[in-house]
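From the shared-data thread, chain only:
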Amino acid sequence: MKRWIYITVTVVALLPTALLSQERVSRKRHEVGLWIGASNPIPGTAVDDVLDANVGGGGFYRVNWPWVFYTELGFSWSQYFSQTTQKLTAVPVHLALAYRLPLDFKVQTYIKLGGGAAWLEVRPANRSGWEPLFFGGLEFSIPASRRLRVGLRLDYDLIYEKHLDPPPEAQYSYFFPGLEDPRDQLEVYEIDNGHFFHFGLMVSFII
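Structure, as tokens:
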């Protein structure tokens, strides 16, 4: 009898802790989403003079952690054509913290800041590699149901390329003036950071 009393008391004592832990776990909301829309170089930048806007898309995973913030892991894919034969494929991958503004509206507004890396591939030059990335974003979305969210995303990608050196042929013409080619001048290979923004429709599922 004493054994059963001990078991009953132990279960009653541990039950609130178990329920509290379960409640804390249930408060975490995992969200998976996709978006599609326009991918554009920022007007007025050096990249805008070379590349044209195109359709892009991406996906993201988000969880309401830590504290009042959300952690978002996302990626996008876009391909930019130029007035020449060159084309650029960009795949930025970011990790960001998002904060939902405490506004009393049905439309929920998120502000996002983070960083990551971007995979760049230039064709037909066959040059590719990862470059550092700064990410910022805005989101305006509406919970359509307990499991579905729809809205608009505005993402900004700054691809840092200032650390890169000019191609070897341009450097040879600079250090050895007798070997210069009129087509290979350092001014032609001016290196600047890439500024891009994406504006698209999004849908996400809360799991």
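The two ends are 45 Å apart (CA to CA).
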